[in-house]
Write a structure and sequence with these properties.
- The chain has about 575 residues and is of the alpha/beta class.
- About 35% of the residues lie in helices and about 15% in strands.
- The strands form six sheets. Strands 2-1-3-4-5-6 form a six-stranded mixed sheet, with helices on one face. A four-stranded parallel sheet has the order 15-16-17-18.
- α5 crosses α17 and α9 runs parallel beside α10.
Amino acid sequence: MTGPISESALDRLLAVVEKPGRYTGDEWNSVAKGWDDVGLRLALAFPDVYEIGMSNLGMAVLYDIVNRRPDMLAERAYAPWPDMAAAMRAQGVPLFALESRRPLAEFDIIGFSLGYELNFTTALEMLDLAGLPLSSADRDDTTPLVIAGGSACFNPEPIADFFDLLVLGDGEEVLPELAALYADFLEAREAPEPGRREHRQSFLKKAAGIPGVYVPELYRAQYHADGRFETLEPISPEAPPRVRARVVRPLPPPPERPIVPYMETVHDRAVIEVRRGCGQGCRFCQAGMIYRPVRERPVGEVVEAAAVAIANTGYDELGLLSLSTCDYRGIEELIEKLLERFAGEVAISLPSLRLDSFSVHLADMVQSRRRSGLTFAPEAGTQRLRDAINKKVTEEDLVQVAEAAFSRSWQRLKLYFMVGLPTETDEDVEGIVHLARRVLDIGRRHQGRRARVSVSVSTFVPKPHTPFQWSPLASDEDLRRRQDILRQGLRGSGLELSWNDPAMTYVEALLARGDRRLGAVIRRAWELGARFDPWDEHFRPDLWRRALDETGVDGDRFARAGYDLEQPLPWDFVDTGVRRSFLA
């Protein structure tokens, strides 16, 4: 199929699927440029449903940056829900972009945003729905360039087979550079022929010279006789031995005209990124390591950007986004100026709160009328373990927060913890029960039986480029025992407990810590039906176990095993700006 999807074809699809608003496009502030008026066409692809992808700020920023250029266009594509995917296959309709409704195969570049390892199979689903080969080696000079970026690409080796190149780090500068280089390449190349790859390979060698760009086919992985990873070596003079992640500073202006969806999304509000990076230094946190150094927008810039975004969208809520918004210098001044600017007509939300009384004070400022609840992250149940993970909070900090919150009419606190952390014992997990019950006692004293404490427990996954990258994933036996401790200890009125599936955590660790041999596993899992793995109703651990068995890959080698400090790691070639010796 060439050209846009017809109205009649789209109507037939929308008549048989739930939430057709996911696929219609034409939202307020979306950009529709003339297809023939630009020299390069980029499809920004997000491997999850519309509601999730439309809440992704990175996609919105890149969409805005590319579309500000008169010589390029950017359009969006999200993963169709299984009902839509089945209907598209049945009716022979390929995956299309929302703005022009043209098939993705007609774009020059398809750029995937990969922020989570469990979205890898959904990215393959989107490529297949687009009618494109899954493997980079099977694409030729007639197919779009398929690229990816995002935090899950900081170990790009498990997905190296599927992408022509990967962008490491901030994308605001490198994506336009890459697109401009490819536009020049398209203009200069001869007519492409099916089956030939000379033009593509020539471009990829040039692209490898752009800082922050990794071209997998220009490298070869070596392994020891016993299967341990040995090294990743360049096989082309154009390929640098190490790829330095891109860092943008200062932060570019925020988008002025965010797209307003016609249906409810996960974060249905205007958003301004006030700060990138985090200086807390928690040893488990990948984002805190790979997004260094900390960069902040001035208060005045944030206020003006917020006013423009609200005026151009009509939202009545504004989110101040960062990894740790309360650490933003001048946060109190910023909130005061925003409250003055919007005169109470716009609610302000702080997505992340520091565990101190000052955070409660800030929450009071922005939620003077609504008292929906506050969220904090002690992460571990004992001071010994909090010290081990470099989480700079104490039990007394949590007690003071609980006193401040419940005494000021808040009725619900949500506490985030992790299990499976390095050096953790059962006593550390019992400490979670102790903290939660102590907080509930404080709540009951101030709010009576209306007080609620919600405990959310996730399983620690050792991520690349963190001080804990050498640590193993906890065993199923330990995780089951510790979940039992929590279930038994957190029973009763006023307490709520939630935790994630250990099998899902295993797959996440497998994909985060793997090397190129994981490519065959990912592909086989998708062939067996794996997609939308972050969704509980679609996650199928049996498919991943079967994929590991059929490909002969020992999953425990990547997920469960620890590494020696001197042992080469598949992601060592990625230079985040944080020295390996510092992490060690």
